[in-house]
Write a structure and sequence with these properties.
This protein is α/β, with parallel strands linked by helices. It contains 14 helices and 19 strands. The strands form five sheets. An eight-stranded mixed beta sheet has the order 12-11-8-13-16-17-18-19, sandwiched between helices. Helix 1 links the parallel strand 1 and strand 2.
């Protein structure tokens, strides 16, 4: 329930993507938000108010002169109760009206009268989106502080393909959740590693581990929500890249090492979450090893991989380095000794049984101030707490 207690006014305007707004209401309510829908007259040609009433549990407003509002000031009452105003879909015509401050129906009027943030998810044909008039309108809205979500790119209802699709409902919900997070890392650059590495033996076999990448992906999402510019160097995992995060896909520890060392000095924070293989096969066998050609089981000689975190921490002006220690026993002892050995200010420790592969985890943070246990929680909640600790350490750091 990431939007518990939040009041959101959802404005639906006239475009075919209005059908996705129904799913959006459902997902917002599922996250705990209270949703009040207001529709333009054009929107009611695509989806009826009854649909939104059923999904939000609240009567929908479409008319500025709605006699249900005792003082006849729906535009003021609705916007004052809101923590955020979201328009999805935002048609080209509606964007033009907003950019020019028009107030000729309930939705435009309540937007003009608002005292809360406004987020708009545009939806239109690609040519309409590319039209210089729309570009101008979007630029004006941005400079007025309106948050523009998307649009996405891809198949359009008209049969064409290109930019202008409304973001998917789940993506819009993620953006709203992100919007409400404190911007503790605004202006900072964060580099992370996540997932396992895969050390090839031959073209079809290799050495890897069971890291799911979920913790690292959750932290990259939390860092981006906190306003950072985030680069995620990821080993092979089956997870979607969090919105707004730049992902660099790598396979082996050596590739991860190159990708990180190339960027580390340009970042304020480096968070090493990846379960990097300690060893790799000394030789890569070009052709698949054939059982029939090996009279005895073959021996694989291993050599050590570079310690990526250790090397970054040893740079002349290192970013603030954060490590992870997944241990099967003696968590405090092993995590603290890793922290000292790698000379890093913060390490997050967890017992392997507590979180490996799942969506929840239990962490203990170790830094110069001692131990900070973070009780069992969804990984995204722990990630946000870790980001808060990192922001506090950054503030204390001498320039
Ligand atoms: O070195 P060790 O595996 O004990 O420490 C774990 C921490 O070091 C994790 O943060 C992990 O991402 C990082 N690490 C690394 N490069 C390695 C091994 C571990 O960055 N080769």
């Amino acid at each position: 329930m990431q939007l518990a207690g939040r009041n959101i006014v959802l404005g639906v305007t006239g475009g075919i993507a209005a059908y996705k707004a129904a799913e959006l209401v459902r997902l917002l309510v599922k996250e705990g938000a209270s949703v009040q829908v207001a529709m333009t007259e054009a929107a009611t040609n695509f989806v009826t108010p009854v649909t939104f009433q059923a999904l939000s549990g609240k009567a929908v407003f479409t008319d500025q002169w709605d006699s249900r509002v005792a003082n006849n000031m729906a535009h003021i009452d609705l916007s004052r109760a809101a923590d955020a105003l979201l328009v999805a879909p935002g048609s080209a015509d509606f964007l033009a009206k907003l950019a020019n401050g028009l107030a000729d129906d309930l939705l435009t009027t309540l937007i003009l009268a608002r005292d809360c943030p406004l987020l708009v998810a545009p939806a239109m044909n690609r040519q309409m989106w590319d039209n210089p008039a729309t570009r101008r309108n979007v630029a004006s809205l941005r400079s007025d502080g309106v948050v523009i979500l998307g649009p996405g790119c891809g198949d359009q209802a008209c049969g064409e393909t290109g930019p202008g699709r409304m973001l998917e409902a789940a993506e819009i919900v993620d953006e709203i959740v992100a919007h409400f997070q404190p911007k503790l890392l605004a202006g900072k650059r964060v580099l992370l590693t996540a997932g396992p590495t895969f050390e090839a033996i031959d073209p079809v076999r290799g050495i890897t581990n069971l890291s799911s990448g979920k913790m690292g992906y959750a932290i990259s999402r939390a860092a981006r929500e906190a306003g950072a510019e985030v680069t995620l160097v990821s080993g092979p995992v089956c997870l979607p890249c969090p919105r707004g995060v730049t992902r660099i896909a790598v396979t082996s520890a050596l590739q991860m090492h190159t990708a990180v060392l190339r960027r580390a000095a340009d970042n304020d924070v480096f968070i090493a979450v990846a379960a990097v293989a300690d060893y790799r096969p000394a030789q890569f066998i070009e052709q698949k090893i054939k059982k029939a050609q090996c009279p005895t089981p073959p021996t694989i000689e291993l050599e050590q991989n570079p310690d990526i975190l250790g090397e970054v921490a040893a740079l002349p002006r290192p970013p603030l380095c954060v490590g992870f220690a997944a241990e099967s026993e003696k968590l405090a002892e092993y995590a603290e000794s890793k922290r000292r050995c790698k000379k890093i200010p913060l390490i997050a420790g967890n017992l392997i049984g507590d979180g490996f592969g799942g969506d929840h985890n239990t962490l203990v943070l170790f830094d110069d101030d001692g131990q900070h246990p973070l009780p069992p929680a969804p990984k995204i909640d722990l990630a946000r707490q870790l980001v808060a600790r990192i922001a506090a350490l950054l503030e204390k750091r001498p320039c």
